[in-house]
Amino acid sequence: MGKAVWSDKKRFIWILSVLLLTAFIFTSGISYKVAHDSLSEQISENTLPLTSDNIYSEIQQDLLQPIFISSLMAQDTFVRDWTINDEEDPQQLIRYLREIQNKYDTVTSFFVSEKSRKYYHSTGVLKKIEDTAPNDAWYFRVRSLPTSESYEVNIDLDTANRTRTVVYVNYKVHDFEGNFIGVTGVGLAVERVQKLIKLYQQRYNRRVYFVDTEGHVTLHGEQYSGSQTLQNSPGLEKYATRILTSPSASFSYVRDNKTVYLNSRMVSDFKWYLMVEQEEAEGEKKILNTFWVNIVLGLMVIVVILVIANLTLGRYQRKLEVMASTDKLTGATNRQMFEEYFSHSLQNAEISATPVSVILLDIDYFKSVNDNFGHSIGDLVIKTVANIIRRQLRSEDIVCRWGGEEFLLLLPNIDLSHAADMAERIRESIAERKISVNEHEIGITVSSGVAQYKLGEPRADLINRVDVALYQAKDRGRDQVVLSH
Known about the structure:
Layout: H1 2-62, H2 65-75, H3 77-84, H4 90-104, E1 108-113, E2 118-121, E3 124-128, H5 137-143, E4 151-157, E5 165-174, E6 180-189, H6 190-204, E7 207-212, E8 217-220, H7 240-244, E9 248-255, E10 258-267, E11 272-279, H8 282-325, H9 335-352, E12 356-363, H10 366-373, H11 375-392, E13 398-401, E14 406-412, H12 416-432, E15 434-437, E16 440-443, E17 446-452, H13 459-475, E18 481-484
Parallel strand pairs: 17-18
Antiparallel strand pairs: 1-2, 1-6, 2-3, 4-5, 5-6, 7-8, 7-11, 9-10, 10-11, 12-14, 12-17, 13-14, 15-16
């Protein structure tokens, strides 16, 4: 029975552990997901688009100025009159370009005449545009722009200084009748634009770069380490078409095992897409850290609960075991549990050929005690006898309440002679004890039968022999011990 109870206890503890752990991980996981999704939604739908709007506003101040300058130059009456008048006195135009460059702090300003194909620069006439020169392809590209498009923005080497890269704004110039007469414009140093991008990145703690309509990364900061096209960017390649076909887009993707939130929007004046990215937020890391802290704390709480549950179950288990194995009145072993001890002792005796003896003890005239003094005094007498018996036994001996006022004693490793001596000591101790009740003293005596187990003897025969010896003791006048040989 003890092993079965212990097995049930372990099973209960395991089931409780699994339920608690599953419930806690489940609730913690849901809490983490809700917090994570809420933060992701906040970033992708609010924070990042707002940052993109702010950067876009600053771009209009910092980068769209060259477009405005080029537009003024293309509409300038002086430029058009000077060109129509066969480009007389080139120094006038050169001085004009130089003033534009100085006034607006550009790195270059230029005009190319369709009629003469001369490339006028703030420092003089640099060259003539040729149809077959690869470096002059930009001019014919701008000249061929649709009527609805007046300019283009491109990045190229500075015509005046081939060691420097410039962001050019190339603007078509028409005469007063709408005929194409040349291209004018200004340029910004790429380094200057990169500084602006770096400033945006530092100010907003985001990665900023530009992409043209074909997916090529046109401008980026110094620390940019991505691919040169969207189509080759890890994690981003599957969104390239979506970006390049939408005026704006917001989504997230995974790069280097990190969640990256991206907002794109078309800067129509540049015909480029502004790309603003934010890596996995610090808030997400805090949420994840909180999740793991909660898990650890939860495990600690579960351990504490299991320890308390184990101690509580152990205490109740011991109570149940006592209730299931002992007599409620005397605390002696009950008959059900005694049968297990009895069988075990007889098996050991058969294996090791060691003696086992039993004593069957009955309180004399117990019915008269109940009749004269009541059942509560009768119970007191039974408890007193049980206590006296226990004091005479060894730790390995078992006392069982066999019947109403009968006790059966199991004595392993004791032969008949020593068992008789023990029975006699018990008889004398009980006879010496007096119980005072309402100024009356109740004397108690017991009769006992003693028998030793014979190897191979059925258990029922042993009980029968000791029972016969007990009745012989009663027949001979009670208060005595009779042995069964």
